[in-house]
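Is this the right way to post structure tokens for a design question? Let me know if I should format differently. Anyway, here goes:
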């Protein structure tokens, strides 16, 4: 195999041609991405603000309906510093599925993940993954966001906003990206908004005279049109979402704000939601505007702190408010039911906020 233009010069000035070599197995490339997310070439994805990555999970499960077990698993789920989920599917160029089947596969994962991924599961995966890799999750978060102020709670609230708004990134990764896949990626990236679709080619080079390997990533799909479109993508205007929200959602927002004032809580407005938090950043509830018109009450964080009985009692109280079958980790109630059952809902929220209250 001849060199395609990559050479190594040693200390003695000898020039050695590096030749492209296939990966011995797909798992080799997957393991490299797990240990070295920078191979996704964040500087090529957004040159003006290079992406940084943290791994949420490898073989991350993807459900196809609410409160269900995972139907599929995606090779890697990363997140960048703006809390944008990045779904990565890895294939070797020798795998014929890389030409068409992988596209439908990744779109399937994205469509269902956006709708059905429980935030509590993603957070738990992130923390477990980082500890398995020998790192403290909060340290990883501080490095990712380049500050010591962002909490894991706040970051995953933002990730939830991005999921609900469809702000995700899909990446095909291979040792060689076929021309057909490049064209599909460019087309999808120009047509889709706010989702982004890219392909990353990670070529491996070796030489008989040199130890180790050289890895060269190249990003495809960033056409001029797609770059211009993505550079000008604003977040959905909050006033627009408010105007299209159900009357019950608007009423619930007012009830929640009054409750926050009376209970010493804080309401944090995001482009698509209002987050009810305690003074020490405990998440009590998230009210989502149109098109969701729901209120989420995160119960898994209670269990993570050892408050299993309290979480179970809260779930019983919440289920009495709605006929919708609720999940145990992140029950999600239509705002119309929440308004009708506000007295009972308020009682549950009071108990949750009391748990987070600092000991006197």
């Amino acid at each position: 195999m001849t060199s395609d233009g990559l050479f190594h010069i040693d200390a003695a000035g000898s020039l050695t041609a590096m030749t492209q070599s296939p990966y011995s197995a797909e798992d080799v490339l997957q393991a490299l991405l797990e240990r070295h997310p920078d191979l996704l070439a964040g500087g090529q994805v957004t040159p003006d603000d290079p992406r940084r990555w943290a791994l949420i999970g490898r073989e991350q499960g993807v459900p196809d309906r609410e409160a269900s077990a995972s139907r599929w698993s995606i090779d890697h789920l990363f997140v960048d510093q703006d809390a944008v989920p990045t779904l990565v599917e890895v294939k070797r160029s020798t795998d014929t599925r890389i030409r068409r089947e992988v596209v439908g596969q990744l779109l399937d994962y994205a469509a269902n993940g956006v709708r059905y991924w429980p935030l509590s599961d993603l957070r738990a995966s992130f923390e477990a993954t980082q500890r398995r890799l020998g790192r403290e999750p909060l340290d990883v978060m501080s490095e990712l966001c380049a500050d010591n102020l962002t909490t894991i709670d706040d970051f995953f609230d933002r990730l939830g906003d991005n999921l609900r708004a469809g702000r995700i990134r899909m990446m095909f990764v291979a040792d060689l990206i076929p021309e057909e896949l490049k064209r599909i990626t460019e087309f999808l990236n120009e047509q889709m908004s706010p989702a982004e679709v890219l392909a990353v080619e990670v070529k491996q080079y070796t030489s008989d005279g040199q130890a180790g390997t050289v890895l060269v990533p190249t990003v495809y799909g960033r056409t001029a049109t797609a770059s211009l479109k993505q550079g000008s993508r604003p977040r959905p205007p909050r006033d627009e979402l408010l105007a299209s929200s159900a009357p019950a959602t608007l009423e619930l927002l007012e009830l929640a704000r009054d409750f926050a004032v009376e209970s010493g809580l804080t309401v944090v407005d995001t482009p698509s939601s209002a987050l009810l938090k305690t003074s020490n950043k405990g998440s009590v509830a998230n009210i989502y505007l149109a098109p969701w018109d729901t209120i989420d009450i995160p119960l898994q964080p209670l269990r993570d702190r050892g408050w299993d009985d309290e979480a179970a009692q809260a779930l019983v109280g919440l289920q009495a408010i709605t006929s919708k079958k609720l999940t145990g980790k992140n029950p999600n109630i239509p705002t119309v039911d929440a308004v009708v059952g506000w007295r009972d809902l308020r009682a549950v929220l009071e108990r949750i906020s009391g748990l987070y209250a600092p000991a006197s």
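Format looks fine. Someone answered above. Worth noting: The radius of gyration is 23 Å. Residues 238-354 form one domain.
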